[in-house]
Design brief:
alpha+beta, 2 helices, 4 strands, globular
């Protein structure tokens, strides 16, 4: 994942990708002119989430919003300027 400055983040959106038997939590980080894609199976996922939590107004309860329903589509904007 490329490095990025928190001050440049305009939006953070979490969503699930998967099928009838599994879900993969994904995240798009929107910056001016660039979108960074990440997912929970990537190395340093936990570090990324801890970094995003420093965004003023970031919803730290994002997981409960995006994790339901199981094996169903769900999107949640955890931060937006």
């Amino acid at each position: 994942m490329p490095p990025f400055q928190l001050s440049k983040v305009a939006r953070v959106e979490f969503y699930k990708r998967g099928d009838a038997t599994s879900d993969l939590i994904c995240c798009d980080i929107f910056l001016p002119g660039e979108t960074i894609f990440a997912h929970e199976e990537m190395a340093h996922w936990d570090e990324l989430i801890r970094k995003l939590e420093f965004l003023g107004g970031f919803d730290v309860e994002w997981f409960s919003q995006v994790s339901k329903p199981a094996f169903g589509e769900s999107r949640y904007v955890a931060f937006e300027k």
